[in-house]
Design brief:
By secondary structure, the protein is α/β, with parallel strands linked by helices. About 40% of the residues lie in helices and about 20% in strands. It has twelve helices and 16 strands. Strands 1, 7, 8, 9, 10, 11, 15 and 16 form an eight-stranded mixed sheet that branches. Strands 3-2-4-5-6 form a five-stranded parallel sheet, sandwiched between helices. Strand 7, helix 6 (about 195-210) and strand 8 (about 215-220) form a beta-alpha-beta unit. The longest helix is centred in the N-terminal third of the chain and has 20 residues, at about 65-80. The protein starts with a helix and ends with a strand.
């Protein structure tokens, strides 16, 4: 379903053009964390090597995101190297596990810098990306986060992102829910998460402008696993839908507990939902019909998408999610930068070239603003019969 002219006008006026297109993905399959080096690729031990430093969670509750990013980036690195590299220069991916912990993310960054990296691809989550950006700005190195969506992820002049911002996701989902004729959403969000709070605040503001009433506005702190108190309040609130701007782990807990409490409402979410089907072991009966924002369509007929999905499946025997696609595109952004600078890989040249490139990737055609933001399209995915499908 495409957005109305009203939604399109909002996106143009406040952020960028983001039309809703049909969206889908798949169950994500099995993924392998591996070690913290460039695994699966060819030998890049020659003198002419461009080192990409990846940072993200390979262990812990958010490991699905980091593993996807690492593997998506490696697919792109292997493709580029197999084609001869970039004017003879080969790429090497060095990836460090930060366990979705900001302090460990900074330690991972310092370890990668000691390894002589040329660019940072990360961090994967918003809080860690912000923490790393404070360090990378001082070093003047280009940082591209594939999936850090909080506004402050691109606060520094050396920082850019592949994904959408939190406020944009919140505003567009408020618009989308309103377009479905739903006017009284309940919300559960993580008050300790930059990602969740950023989406929540923008959603609430936009909902008010649309004349919607927030039936219940419930919060929790990251790490919580019991949501029965919040769900009990929502049950008696008169809400006509439930908006969950949170990560897939908590979505899994909430959907299972909602069934026991007796809450049966349409679910809506944002890009942090990717991975929830695996979290639920494929049993999505409690969130059948749930809709969330995403930049990636795994079964798209777009040649860029089909080629990536085929290569990823061949390498990892699974279907890539949006995080893998964001990282894959991130590496091709780096390739475009090196080509644009004529091989000048200095920090200044790479950062300066970011606003001069356009890349047609697995998550769409994208260019970048001086503020570090991508201009690209968004989609929605719906969960049906244990799969992500288009709507």
């Amino acid at each position: 379903m495409k957005v109305s002219k009203k939604i399109l006008a909002l996106a143009l006026a406040g952020f960028m053009t983001v039309p809703f297109l049909a969206g889908c993905s798949s169950d994500g399959g099995s993924q392998n964390g591996g070690d913290n080096s460039a695994d699966g690729g060819e030998d890049v031990s020659s003198a002419s090597v461009f080192k990409i430093g990846g940072i993200g969670p390979l262990t812990g509750d958010a490991a699905s995101y980091g593993i996807s990013v690492k593997q998506g980036a490696q697919v792109a690195v292997d493709e580029i190297n197999a084609a001869g590299g970039i004017d003879g220069m080969k790429l090497e991916l060095l990836f460090e596990d930060d366990e979705c912990n900001e302090e460990k993310s900074v330690s991972a960054y310092n370890k990668l810098m000691d390894s002589g990296i040329n660019v940072v691809l990360g961090a994967v989550t918003s809080g860690c990306s912000i923490a790393v950006s404070e360090e990378s700005a001082g070093d003047g190195i280009l940082q591209i986060t594939p999936s850090g969506s909080a506004m402050d992820c691109t606060k520094q002049p050396n920082s850019f992102r592949i994904c959408f911002t939190d406020p944009l996701q919140g505003k567009l989902m408020a618009q989308y829910i309103s377009e479905q004729g739903l006017k009284s959403p309940a919300i559960i969000y993580d008050v300790a998460s930059d990602y969740s709070k950023g989406i929540h605040d923008a959603f609430v503001e936009q909902a008010g402008e649309l004349g919607m009433t927030i039936a219940a506005d419930e919060s929790f702190t990251g790490g919580d696993v019991d949501f029965k108190t919040q769900l009990t309040k929502i049950k008696s609130s008169g809400a006509d839908c439930l908006f969950l701007p949170i990560y897939y782990t908590e979505v899994g807990y909430i959907s299972e507990q909602a069934a026991t409490v007796g809450v049966s409402l349409p679910y809506f979410g944002c890009d942090g939902w990717d991975g929830v089907i695996n979290q639920l072991g494929g049993n999505t009966a409690n969130i059948e019909g749930a809709t969330f924002l995403t930049p990636f369509v795994a079964n798209s007929s777009n040649p860029k998408v089909t080629a990536f999905v085929e290569a990823y499946n061949k390498a990892y025997n699974s279907t890539p999610d949006q995080f893998a696609a964001d990282a894959y595109d991130g590496v091709y952004v780096i390739k475009a930068l090196i080509e644009t600078t004529g091989g000048d890989i200095s920090n200044e040249a790479l950062i300066g070239a970011m606003t001069k490139i356009t890349v047609d990737g697995a998550t769409g055609s994208m260019s970048f603003t001086a503020d570090g933001e991508p201009n690209k399209s968004a989609m929605v995915a719906v969960i049906q019969n244990g799969e992500y499908v288009g709507k």
